Amino acid sequence: MKSTLSMCFLFVLVGIPGVLVAAESTNAPPKGVHTVKAGAFKVEVKLSGAFGPSQSTPIKLRPKTWTDLTVKSVVAHGAEVGEGTVLIEFEMEKLDRRITDSKRALEAARLDLALANAEHQFAVKSAELDRNSAQLAFKRLGEDLKHFQEHVKEFNVKSTHQSYASYSNSLAYAEEELKQLKKMYDADDLTEETEEIIIQRALNTVNRARFSLERAELTRLASLKFGMPREIKDRETAQERSQISKERLKATFETSTQRRELSIQQKRVDFDKAGKAHVKLEADRKLLDVKAPANGVVYYGEFVNGLWTGRKHLAAKLRPSGKVMPNETFMTVVSPRPLIISGSVGEKDLRQLNLGTRGWATPTAAPEQRIPVTVTAISRVPSAPGKFAITLAASLGAAHGYLAPGMGCAVKLEMYSKAKALTVPSAALHYGPDQKPYVKVVAGETTENKAVQLGRTANGKTEITGGLKAGDQVKVN
Asked: Is the pTM of this model over 0.70?
């Protein structure tokens, strides 16, 4: 009975014209056709972010010389430290020995330089004296040779002849005396024995005089033939040698001076190098006294673009006997508050993102919480292929004390919002030869190309700011 009444009521409704029109107006548009209507439209960007410190100091050692950074002790990851707290201690025995050796090398280089300067000054003065002495010796030898040739030579010849004549006279005197003795002894009454003694003595005197004369003759001949010519030649040779010595000293004076000056310059360079090397070692010694620059929390590793790297391999280095590499950020002293959020957006969202854009962050540790965020920095160059880094300020309250640098979150940014926006599926848009957009508006059984002005695009929809009105139907291809 109830079923029959229901059917009758349905037939009555269908038969009423007004009701029929209402039923037809609620029918969905044909497939592939979209009815334009006003509605809420939002453009949102979703990204993964990480909480990071707004203030942090990376700890990195840049030694100038020393590279053996062997760890002796180190503070723990996550330790709270105050300004001036020793963060890491290194083995210093080898470095201290190297510094001691460097001091000795520096002192030796200083002494070498001082000695070279002193020797140079002495050599310059000595060379000047040698040059003067050589010039004086040459002059004197020339004077002596001239005097010898002009005066001494002739006198020596005379002296040789005179010596020979003297010996000749001595022989003549002895022979005459012997002759006279023989005559005298023949006339006196001396005994024969005495006569023989006196005569023998006189005869010996004659023989000695004759021998001396022979020797004088040989000496005279040797002097005239060999002695004096050789002496002249020796004097001439000595003068030539003196001339050569003088010229050699003159020629080598500048060269020797330049050579010594170059040696001094090199020793000065060596001294400067030794000084710089020592200064670098001393600076490295001070550099290895690593203390916290401010109050904070120690993180092993570094924050890159606000994101903590973690760097697991540092655990093997930051322990006794481990080795830290120069120019490596091995830890970071982090101020736990205030926190910022770091993340990245794709190229398609970069154009719509602006400084001051607001949104919400949902901590991974507390999905039920919403933290207001504001964009404070946008990279204008890629931080990775197709990605651009952004930084957001986070408004944290007392309920967010659990948050620490390195923790993650999800971020949603509202780029654009309009309560009553006309939108069409992005697939309904077409572009003419002039690259101007248009849509195909359904008009009965036909379609009409109609130019439109575009707004924002999101989630497969595009806002139409001109060219269409609510109720228009467009084809979706």
From this structure: no
